[in-house]
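User: Reviewer 2 asked us to show a designed sequence for the structure in our supplementary figure. I'm pasting the structure tokens here. Could you produce the per-position amino acids so we can include them in the response letter?
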């Protein structure tokens, strides 16, 4: 959720204050650790307080708040983890502010949210809530709200784009490829993700990554897997129909190619994490024939061979482009597929440290954590690894 390159050129620079002392950072992190075990109750209290103080905000959210509560917690954890990394945190918050325009959020809502959030943390902190801790959280929220609000106010583009479903293809019971066509170009970069609202789940937005670079006909291809308790994903897979109208939110994410690095690329994809990787490869393929391209090594993994639903297309792509090599990885190998056996983290580590590559990792949070951790231990520099953590239903 940290994407500097996407900030619009005409957006005002949000102030980037940093925590003045390590004590402020420690106060926030220690405070959050104390309430983390009560996170579900905390989130319920937060929304109850918000809807009491600003009743009009209730209409901005879906009827079922379960998914929304979990998103609040993920966002809160992300901010807590990055509070001392303003160069990463501020661009993410600016994107988040632009994204929240789709809800109809206005400036006075930020004050109500801040009061409700800090009040909820104070309630569940008990005696550990001191004036110093309160000031730390208040200062942190001032950073959050200023970055989000100023980015939203400076955005001149649409808050959302209308999209019509033009194709829906099932791949088994749990997976579908859905193609939509927007009424105007969506200004995303290959590798980024978009929020999507469908008529089956009004006001319940789901983050999806296009599997293609921007096209002249404004079509976007989404790979969607139905996940347990996934209200939006299950509806998309089972009930999407040609002719439906979806809404698309602004682009987010930091997954993109660095054209100036001069390094070769390693791409690691698990499950539908293949979608942003395909968009990046699509971008490379579309470059002029005489353009220089890095060598690209792709590892695509799943539990079984059947999980590698798009591997045939990737293999064909590699046959046509000598700069591309694709390696399938499965955890349960029957000996007939020829795939590497093990988790993606295991296989990547077996191939070396990849210290001289730019690395992009896409997939479930569990897979991302395992793969990035193993690569760091093997010697891959952290600043060469890119991934997006917020892609769940």
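Assistant: Here is a per-position design you can include in the supplement:
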């Amino acid at each position: 959720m940290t994407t500097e390159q996407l900030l619009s050129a005409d957006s005002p620079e949000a102030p980037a204050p940093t925590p003045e002392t390590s004590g402020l950072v420690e106060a926030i992190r220690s405070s959050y650790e104390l309430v983390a075990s009560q996170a579900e109750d905390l989130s319920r209290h937060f929304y109850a307080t918000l809807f009491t103080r600003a009743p009009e905000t209730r209409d901005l959210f879906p009827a079922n708040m379960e998914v929304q509560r979990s998103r609040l917690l993920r966002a809160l954890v992300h901010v807590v983890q990055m509070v001392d990394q303003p160069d990463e945190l501020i661009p993410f918050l600016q994107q988040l502010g632009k994204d929240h325009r789709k809800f109809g959020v206005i400036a006075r809502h930020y004050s109500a949210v801040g009061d409700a959030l800090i009040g909820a943390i104070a309630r569940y902190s008990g005696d550990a809530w001191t004036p110093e801790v309160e000031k730390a959280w208040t200062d942190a929220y001032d950073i959050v709200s200023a970055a989000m609000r100023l980015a939203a106010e400076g955005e001149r583009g649409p808050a959302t784009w209308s999209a019509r479903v033009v194709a829906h293809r099932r791949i088994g019971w749990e997976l579908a490829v859905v193609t939509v066509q927007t009424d105007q170009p969506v200004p995303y970069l290959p590798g980024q993700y978009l929020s999507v609202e469908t008529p089956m789940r009004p006001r319940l937005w789901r983050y999806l990554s296009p599997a293609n670079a921007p096209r002249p006909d404004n079509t976007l291809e989404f790979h969607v897997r139905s996940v347990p308790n996934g209200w939006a994903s299950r509806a998309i897979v089972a009930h999407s129909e040609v002719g439906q109208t979806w809404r698309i939110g602004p682009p987010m994410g930091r997954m993109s190619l660095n054209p100036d690095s001069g390094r070769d690329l390693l791409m690691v994809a698990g499950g539908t994490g293949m979608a942003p990787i395909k968009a990046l490869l699509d971008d490379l393929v579309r470059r002029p024939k005489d353009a220089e391209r890095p060598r690209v090594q792709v590892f695509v993994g799943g539990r079984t061979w059947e999980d590698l639903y798009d591997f045939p297309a990737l293999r064909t792509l590699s046959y046509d482009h000598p700069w591309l090599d694709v390696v399938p990885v499965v955890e349960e190998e029957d000996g007939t597929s020829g795939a590497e056996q093990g988790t993606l983290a295991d296989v990547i580590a077996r191939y070396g440290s990849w210290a001289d590559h730019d690395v992009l990792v896409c997939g479930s949070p569990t897979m991302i954590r395992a793969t990035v951790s193993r690569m760091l231990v093997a010697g891959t520099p952290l600043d060469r690894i890119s991934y997006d953590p917020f892609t769940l239903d």
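For the response letter, you might also mention the following. The radius of gyration is 21 Å. The chain has three domains: 4-154, 161-248, 264-387.
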